[in-house]
Specification:
The chain is an alpha/beta fold. It has one domain (6-210): Rossmann fold, CATH 3.40.50. Helix content is 36%, strand content 21%. A hairpin with a 2-residue loop joins β3 (55-60) and β4. α1 (6-14) packs parallel to α2 (35-46) and α4 (91-113) packs across α7.
Length: 219
């Protein structure tokens, strides 16, 4: 059941989202970097505009793969209090990591968006896409930030997820969609044959080069 790569995952995910196809009020947002190739395929299948929504994980120092929270465009920060309390992470450490990741978030905003304005979310169906959910901290930050922009309907769409994260996040959005929900999840990368890191150049290429002559509507 594993995906060949992120593009294959996007095509299989899009098959679960056909009820949003050909609608003028749909916007697909990919979380960089790995969520953008998935979102690209979803946007193509739905004939919907594609944009990027920048979120940065706050990794525990020395164990950066473990998320103690995340930040997103709009100044939103979400903390994973279970991790913070269990590891007794001091506030000054959280602030130091937050500042470093904020600088990287701003760099990526400039790199990916060029001179384009942020996407218009208010009153639209916003489908937020990533390549998978483990703790869900990054997606929760995106959801919290997007809620501030008052979308008409907020959808989280992922190829695979830890079941507990899927169920918890499902209570925070209007709809959540996944292709694979394994009982033994372990890590996102285990559900892909090819899980090589997505580069900044690949993100820019996908955002700036619609496939097969498809003309995305102006966001």
């Amino acid at each position: 059941m594993a995906f060949e790569d992120r593009r294959d995952a996007g095509r299989r995910l899009a098959a679960r989202l056909t009820h949003y196809a050909q609608r003028a009020d749909v916007l697909v947002l990919g979380l960089p970097r790995g969520g953008v190739p998935v979102a690209y395929e979803v946007a193509q299948a739905l004939s919907a505009p594609l944009d990027v929504f920048v979120v940065r994980k706050l990794g525990v120092p020395g164990h950066e793969e473990l998320a103690m929270g995340a930040i997103a465009t709009g100044g939103v920060r979400v903390l994973n209090l279970d991790v913070v309390e269990e590891l007794s992470i001091p506030s000054q450490v959280i602030e130091k990591v937050t500042e470093a990741e904020r600088q990287e978030l701003e760099r990526r905003e400039r790199l990916y968006r060029d001179d384009r304005p942020p996407p218009v979310v208010e009153g639209r169906i916003s489908i937020v896409v990533d390549d998978g959910l483990a703790t869900g901290a990054t997606m929760r930050a995106a959801v919290a930030a997007l809620r501030q922009s008052r979308p008409a309907w907020l959808v989280v769409a992922i190829p695979t997820s830890a079941r507990s994260t899927y169920e918890e996040l499902g209570r925070e959005v209007d709809e959540i969609v996944a292709v694979i929900l394994p009982d033994a999840f372990h890590a996102v990368g285990l559900w892909y044959h090819d899980f090589r890191p997505t580069t900044d150049d690949e993100v820019r290429q996908l955002l700036n080069a619609p496939p097969d002559g498809l003309q995305y509507r102006t966001v």
